[in-house]
Amino acid sequence: MPGISADLICHKLAIHKEAKPVAQRKRKVGDERREAIVAETQKLLNADFIREVRYTTWLANVVLVKKNSGKWCMCVDYTDLNKACPKDSYPLPSIDRLRLMDKVFHQQIGRNMEIYVDDMVVKTTSAVDHATDLAEVFAQVRKHNMLLNPEKCVFGVQGGKFLGFIITSRGIEANPEKCKAIIQMQSPQTVKEVQRLAGRLVSLEIHQGICGMHSSARSMAARVLRAGYYWPTLKSDCQSHLQKCKECQQFGNKHQQPPENLHHMMSAWPFSQWGMDILGPFPPAKGQLKFLLVAIDYFTKWIEVCPLAKITTENVRKFTWKNIICRFGIPHALVTDNGQQFIAQEFEEFLNELGVKHLSTSVEHPQTNGQAEAANKVILRELKKRLGNAKGQWPEELPSILWAYHCTPQSTTQETPYRLTYGTNAMIPIEFGQISHRRQTFNGEQNAQELAADLDLVDELREEAQIHEEAYKLRASRRYNTQVKPRAFRAGDLVWRLLGEARKDTSDGKLAPTWGGPFRVTEDLKNGAYRLEELNGKPIPRTWNATHLKLYFS
After folding, report:
1. Which CATH superfamily hosts domain 95-179?
2. How far apart are CA 296 and CA 304, in angstroms?
3. Superfamily of domain 1-87
4. In the record, what terms sit under GO molecular function (predicted)?
5. Tens digit of pLDDT for each residue in 216-251?
6. Residue 354's pLDDT is what?
7. CATH 2.30.30.140 fits 493-551, yes or no
């Protein structure tokens, strides 16, 4: 490999023994960034700095960051790799450059030069000494086959920009480019402009001053009036000021009203679409069973479950194959949340091989997989009522709970899941204790004829159930939509994202902010789902629902 000798520095990656390889899902990029990635990759290939590999044990996405010069800097997202490595005094991704610079210039750092990652400044008190120090630096650069970027090199100056600051003999000064807006701000020239400035200062002091309070716009306007100030647009200005206050936005309340109309999901035929979810943890049962894998068919409402000790991708794959595909055929679609077991590459490849469309819900929005959540409620409610103090017996109660559920007419279809699946009603225990009419008048020949007729009419039965379900969901949609307060976003909008408990800083406790951000909307996926990215252009994985977003005002 050309460049710096491996004898001087060679990166050796130490990984925890228990760490599992992580292959990140490929992220989509725009045309401009894709062209930059291709060009930079080809450049590295031509220079023999990288080579193509055939194995995909570890995969990390590249992240493009725009330089001040307008060019793209190609970085790599080593988040997952960092987690698998023992802590080092030099952090990734600059670990090699830091060690290299320390080794090459260890006799000069602090004496006549300073270094930050791969940026360096040579400092001298006289021109003669400066030339000598530069010669010393150049000698080290040549010795170790290092290259300098001519566009970033400046020689023989008394001051200059370094890491965004101006470095001179006087010390560190502010960058004039970043102070330009303040310096060029004009002072008020007319009475109107003076009044406008006074109004802003009054609003700022009353809302955020030492005796201020982040109250509502109405309260803020009342306090301004009590202080003896008034202008015609007082109320609207207070509302605008409150809307743009960063603290009020970040610590504001959650939205209670839904932002989108209710979009219900329907299945075209039995067992064509399943919803899957994980329920637990439960009290440990025999075999250390603590979790329950639940799947429900969107058409018949038939439920399949499997108690497990550990929820792994392999267990989810086996359950899908054994309980769904081998019993009811290959489905058209499978709806899951964003659990690691469901979005793992191994499970995605398994579904792709079978032609199953995998639909993932938005983050922290279980309503998208509402059918599975409803199944969870049924199972959990019945377990609580049946177990009493014997909490560890929950796996033994599952078969009887599912049988009772499958033989109970559902409010949406007006039919039992058992009949929609098999075309006839199941025999239940009560018919043995108190002999039912069909057992009392049973005739083998007539029963065979009736059973054949039921099977012939099963399509009509399912069609009628589908009509009942559609009507039920339309009524529910009409009720739900009366509460909707529309809240939509477009690509390029800046938004706040609701902070879930997992994303809050635990050290903040009760003082943690409600919203985090801002983030930029990159794509509207319709039905209230959006893709986001950070302000530096780094994409945020998975989709986010409008329920957890609100506009950012600045």
Report:
1. Reverse transcriptase/Diguanylate cyclase domain (3.30.70.270)
2. 6
3. HIV Type 1 Reverse Transcriptase, subunit A, domain 1 (3.10.10.10)
4. nucleic acid binding
5. 888 878 887 877 877 788 888 888 877 888 888 888
6. 92
7. yes
**Residues 444, 442: Cα–Cα separation, whole Å:** 7
Phi and psi at 237, nearest 5°, equal -65, -40
Q: Which CATH architecture has domain 273-475?
A: 2-Layer Sandwich (3.30)
CA–CA gap between residue 551 and residue 515 (Å, rounded):
11
Yes or no: say if 200 and 179 are a contact pair by the CB < 8 Å rule: no
Best CA proximity match to 495, nearest among 519, 473, 475: 519
Structural contact between residues 514 and 252, judged by C-beta atoms closer than 8 angstroms: yes
Strand 357-360 relative to strand 333-336, pairing: parallel
Amino acid symbol at 513 = P
Instruction: Please answer whether residues 422 and 406 qualify as being in contact, where contact means their C-beta atoms are separated by less than 8 angstroms.
Output: no
Which of 489, 495, 488 minimizes the C-alpha distance to 535?
495
* Alpha carbon distance 308, 318 (integer Å): 12
CA 96 to chain centre: 30
pLDDT given for residue 320 in this prediction: 93
Domain locations in the chain as residue ranges:
1-87, 95-179, 186-244, 273-475, 493-551
10-residue mean pLDDT profile of the chain (554 residues): values are 64 76 81 86 84 78 80 83 72 58 79 79 81 85 81 80 76 77 80 80 75 78 80 82 81 82 84 91 89 92 92 92 92 90 90 91 83 90 84 87 90 89 77 63 69 76 87 88 86 88 76 86 87 87 87 86
Question: Model-level pTM greater than 0.70?
Answer: no
Q: Among candidates 398, 428, 241, 220, which has minimal Cα distance to 307? A: 398
